[in-house]
Design goal:
Blueprint (H helix, E strand, L loop, with lengths): L1 H15 L1 H9 L4 E3 L8 E3 L1 H9 L3 H11 L6 E7 L3 E6 L1 H14 L12
Helix pairs in contact: 1-2, 1-4, 2-3, 3-4
Length: 117
């Protein structure tokens, strides 16, 4: 799920401005599980991290990013919080999508080849 959200963020950044997208590649879009369910299912601080390079207020940049997010059946809504955090609330379909992925990958689910040479 994190990977799909990172792809949505990358698409939004690319849609905003080519130089901003290049900066985003240098700063990996970190999407993390929210500690508090009231703050959504996942959150990112990408607007805070890119604000200086974009010469923009972090909250204003977060608003631009959210407005540029492509539609996804996995995301119910994205909200801006605090100084420029973006909180993602998953749609009910996201859970079904993830369950289908677990079933499809069976014992391989959750395993990655990252770091295996």
């Amino acid at each position: 799920m994190k990977q799909q959200l990172e792809q949505l963020l990358a698409a939004a950044l690319a849609a905003l401005d080519g130089t901003l997208a290049a900066t985003a590649e240098a700063i990996a879009a970190t999407v993390e599980r929210s500690r508090d369910p009231r703050h959504g299912d996942f959150a990112t601080n990408i607007a805070l991290r890119l604000a200086k390079a974009a010469r923009s207020n972090p909250r204003a940049l977060a608003q631009r990013i959210v407005a540029a997010l492509p539609p996804s059946p996995l995301v119910l809504r994205a909200e801006i919080a605090g100084a420029g955090f973006i909180n993602f609330f998953l749609a009910p379909a996201a859970y079904g999508h993830e369950l289908a992925e677990i079933h499809r990958r069976a014992e391989r689910y959750g395993h990655a080849s990252l770091g295996h040479g």
